[in-house]
UniProtKB/TrEMBL annotation:
One Pfam family here: Acetyltransf_1
Protein name: GNAT family N-acetyltransferase
Highest taxon of source: Bacteria
Coiled coil: 13-40
Domain called N-acetyltransferase: residue spans: 1-157
Amino acid sequence: MIRSATLNDIPEIRAMIRELAAYERAVEQARATEEQLREALFGEHPAAYALIAEDDGTGEAVGYALWFPRFSTWTGTRGMHLEDLYVRPRARGAGHGKALLAALAATCRSNGYDRFEWWVLAWNTPTIDFYKSLGVELLEEWKVCRLSGEPLRELAAQAPDVVNPAFDV
Protein backbone atom coordinates (compact mmCIF):
# COMPACT_ATOMS: atom_id res chain seq x y z
CA MET A 1 0.00 0.00 0.00
CA ILE A 2 1.15 3.53 -0.79
CA ARG A 3 -0.19 6.37 1.34
CA SER A 4 0.60 9.95 2.25
CA ALA A 5 2.87 10.34 5.25
CA THR A 6 1.39 11.52 8.55
CA LEU A 7 2.91 13.16 11.61
CA ASN A 8 3.14 9.71 13.20
CA ASP A 9 5.51 8.63 10.40
CA ILE A 10 8.21 11.20 11.25
CA PRO A 11 10.37 8.84 13.39
CA GLU A 12 10.19 6.12 10.73
CA ILE A 13 10.97 8.58 7.92
CA ARG A 14 13.99 9.84 9.84
CA ALA A 15 15.17 6.26 10.42
CA MET A 16 14.84 5.47 6.71
CA ILE A 17 16.68 8.67 5.77
CA ARG A 18 19.58 7.48 7.91
CA GLU A 19 19.41 4.00 6.34
CA LEU A 20 19.50 5.57 2.87
CA ALA A 21 22.44 7.78 3.88
CA ALA A 22 24.32 4.73 5.17
CA TYR A 23 23.68 2.94 1.86
CA GLU A 24 24.94 6.02 0.00
CA ARG A 25 28.07 6.06 2.19
CA ALA A 26 27.24 9.43 3.72
CA VAL A 27 25.51 8.76 7.04
CA GLU A 28 27.37 11.65 8.70
CA GLN A 29 25.62 14.04 6.31
CA ALA A 30 22.10 12.93 7.31
CA ARG A 31 21.57 15.43 10.12
CA ALA A 32 17.86 16.23 9.78
CA THR A 33 16.05 16.06 13.12
CA GLU A 34 12.51 14.88 13.68
CA GLU A 35 11.53 18.47 14.47
CA GLN A 36 13.00 19.70 11.18
CA LEU A 37 11.16 16.98 9.27
CA ARG A 38 7.92 17.76 11.11
CA GLU A 39 8.20 21.43 10.11
CA ALA A 40 9.29 20.66 6.52
CA LEU A 41 6.48 18.17 5.87
CA PHE A 42 3.64 19.41 8.08
CA GLY A 43 4.43 23.01 9.02
CA GLU A 44 2.46 26.07 8.01
CA HIS A 45 4.33 26.24 4.68
CA PRO A 46 5.45 22.69 3.80
CA ALA A 47 8.74 22.51 1.93
CA ALA A 48 8.23 18.92 0.83
CA TYR A 49 5.79 16.01 0.80
CA ALA A 50 6.20 12.32 1.50
CA LEU A 51 4.63 9.01 0.61
CA ILE A 52 5.01 5.82 2.65
CA ALA A 53 5.12 2.29 1.24
CA GLU A 54 3.65 -0.25 3.65
CA ASP A 55 3.94 -4.01 3.57
CA ASP A 56 0.46 -5.32 2.78
CA GLY A 57 0.76 -8.18 5.25
CA THR A 58 2.25 -6.45 8.28
CA GLY A 59 1.46 -2.77 7.73
CA GLU A 60 5.13 -2.02 8.41
CA ALA A 61 6.67 1.01 6.69
CA VAL A 62 9.12 -0.48 4.19
CA GLY A 63 9.91 2.58 2.09
CA TYR A 64 9.29 6.22 1.44
CA ALA A 65 9.50 8.89 -1.24
CA LEU A 66 10.08 12.54 -0.39
CA TRP A 67 9.49 15.20 -3.07
CA PHE A 68 8.92 18.89 -3.64
CA PRO A 69 7.59 21.04 -6.51
CA ARG A 70 9.99 22.83 -8.83
CA PHE A 71 9.58 25.21 -11.75
CA SER A 72 10.93 25.08 -15.31
CA THR A 73 11.57 28.34 -17.13
CA TRP A 74 11.71 26.35 -20.38
CA THR A 75 8.25 24.80 -20.09
CA GLY A 76 6.73 27.54 -17.93
CA THR A 77 5.26 24.86 -15.71
CA ARG A 78 5.84 23.23 -12.37
CA GLY A 79 7.47 19.87 -12.06
CA MET A 80 8.46 17.46 -9.34
CA HIS A 81 11.86 16.87 -7.80
CA LEU A 82 12.21 13.55 -6.02
CA GLU A 83 14.66 14.09 -3.17
CA ASP A 84 14.61 10.55 -1.77
CA LEU A 85 13.31 7.18 -2.86
CA TYR A 86 14.14 4.36 -0.48
CA VAL A 87 12.94 0.81 0.06
CA ARG A 88 14.39 -1.20 2.91
CA PRO A 89 16.61 -4.06 1.70
CA ARG A 90 14.36 -6.81 3.08
CA ALA A 91 11.41 -5.41 1.07
CA ARG A 92 13.18 -4.85 -2.25
CA GLY A 93 11.94 -6.73 -5.28
CA ALA A 94 8.32 -6.72 -4.11
CA GLY A 95 7.29 -3.70 -6.21
CA HIS A 96 7.34 -1.01 -3.52
CA GLY A 97 9.81 1.24 -5.35
CA LYS A 98 7.87 1.01 -8.59
CA ALA A 99 4.60 1.66 -6.74
CA LEU A 100 6.08 4.78 -5.09
CA LEU A 101 7.32 6.07 -8.45
CA ALA A 102 3.97 5.30 -10.10
CA ALA A 103 2.11 7.19 -7.36
CA LEU A 104 4.44 10.16 -7.84
CA ALA A 105 3.98 10.02 -11.62
CA ALA A 106 0.21 10.08 -11.07
CA THR A 107 0.65 13.11 -8.80
CA CYS A 108 2.58 14.81 -11.58
CA ARG A 109 -0.15 14.09 -14.09
CA SER A 110 -2.98 15.23 -11.82
CA ASN A 111 -1.15 18.50 -11.05
CA GLY A 112 -0.19 19.21 -14.66
CA TYR A 113 3.54 18.83 -13.97
CA ASP A 114 5.56 18.35 -17.16
CA ARG A 115 8.70 16.99 -15.52
CA PHE A 116 9.56 14.47 -12.83
CA GLU A 117 13.26 14.58 -12.05
CA TRP A 118 15.74 13.25 -9.52
CA TRP A 119 19.40 12.37 -9.07
CA VAL A 120 21.07 8.99 -8.75
CA LEU A 121 24.61 8.24 -7.69
CA ALA A 122 26.78 7.17 -10.63
CA TRP A 123 28.02 4.03 -8.82
CA ASN A 124 24.51 2.81 -7.91
CA THR A 125 24.18 0.37 -10.82
CA PRO A 126 21.24 -1.68 -9.45
CA THR A 127 19.16 1.45 -9.02
CA ILE A 128 20.19 2.87 -12.40
CA ASP A 129 19.19 -0.43 -14.03
CA PHE A 130 15.83 -0.31 -12.22
CA TYR A 131 15.22 3.26 -13.44
CA LYS A 132 16.18 2.35 -17.01
CA SER A 133 13.68 -0.54 -16.92
CA LEU A 134 10.97 2.08 -16.33
CA GLY A 135 12.06 4.16 -19.33
CA VAL A 136 13.85 6.85 -17.35
CA GLU A 137 16.13 9.11 -19.41
CA LEU A 138 19.53 9.66 -17.78
CA LEU A 139 20.77 13.18 -18.46
CA GLU A 140 24.49 12.41 -18.50
CA GLU A 141 25.49 15.80 -19.86
CA TRP A 142 24.29 17.63 -16.71
CA LYS A 143 26.39 17.99 -13.59
CA VAL A 144 24.96 18.73 -10.15
CA CYS A 145 26.35 21.92 -8.61
CA ARG A 146 26.40 22.45 -4.85
CA LEU A 147 27.49 25.44 -2.81
CA SER A 148 27.60 24.93 0.97
CA GLY A 149 29.64 25.62 4.08
CA GLU A 150 32.31 28.30 3.94
CA PRO A 151 32.09 28.92 0.16
CA LEU A 152 28.35 29.60 0.58
CA ARG A 153 29.04 32.03 3.45
CA GLU A 154 31.76 33.79 1.44
CA LEU A 155 29.57 34.26 -1.63
CA ALA A 156 26.61 35.42 0.48
CA ALA A 157 28.85 38.07 2.09
CA GLN A 158 29.35 39.55 -1.39
CA ALA A 159 25.62 39.93 -2.11
CA PRO A 160 24.30 43.39 -2.96
CA ASP A 161 21.25 44.71 -1.15
CA VAL A 162 18.07 43.52 -2.84
CA VAL A 163 15.37 46.13 -3.24
CA ASN A 164 11.92 44.78 -2.35
CA PRO A 165 12.88 41.11 -2.03
CA ALA A 166 10.13 38.84 -3.35
CA PHE A 167 10.47 36.30 -0.59
CA ASP A 168 12.02 35.63 2.76
CA VAL A 169 11.93 31.94 3.50
